[in-house]
Amino acid sequence: MARSLQIISVFLLLTLTSCASIISDSSYAVTIDTAPSGEQIVVENQAGRAIYSGATPVTLTLKAWAGFFDGESYMVRTPDGGSSSVLDSGVDNWYLFGNLLFGGLLGWFVVDPMTGAMFNLPEHFVLAVNPKT
User: Fold this and answer.
1) 133 residues of the chain, pLDDT tens digit each
2) Residue among 103, 46, 100, 97 nearest 76 (CA)
3) What torsion, rounded to 10 degrees, do the Cα atoms 73, 121, 28, 41 define?
4) How many structural domains does the chain have?
5) Cα 87 versus chain centre, distance
6) ω before 57 within 30° of 0 (cis)?
7) Which of 90, 57, 62 has the alpha carbon at shortest distance from 74?
């Protein structure tokens, strides 16, 4: 009985781990700046909710995922709407290649998409601001 419990425990541990979930995060510190620096910006998530309003440069902790197999994207814009750009999450290399070594199919299709570890965000993002007329 104890031996079968050990085998089941090892099996569960192996199936519930994946590479990106071990190595990566699901939230990242992103420094957002404007060119020129010091401009006012608004940052909205893909649901349209403003999560920051203020001057640059600023470092925000942003979620890289919005749901199962759904990476987050952010609209970074000036309050007057004159300049805007999308800050998109990308697929983490640990998700793509690390699961070949450690996570396998469960890592690719269940654990990493469920935890958001399959996505990442850049460390820096710069919004080019159109000159005011």
Assistant:
1) 666 666 655 554 444 444 444 455 668 899 999 999 999 999 999 999 999 999 999 999 999 878 777 889 999 999 998 899 999 998 777 666 666 666 566 665 666 666 767 788 999 999 999 876 5
2) 46
3) -50
4) 1
5) 10
6) yes
7) 62
Q: Which domain holds residue 113?
A: 17-128
What is the secondary structure of the chain as a DSSP string? -HHHHHHHHHHHHHHT--HHHHH--SEEEEEEEEESTT-EEEEE-TTS-EEEEEESSEEEEEESEEETTEE-EEEEE-TTSSSEEEEE-EE-HIIIIIIIIIIHHHIIIIIHHHHTTTEE--SEEEEEPPPP-
The pLDDT score that the predictor gives to residue 79 is 94
The count of C-alpha atoms lying within 13 angstroms of the C-alpha of 80, restricted to the half-sphere facing its C-beta, is 9
Q: Is 79 inside any structural domain?
A: yes
Residue 27 in domain: yes
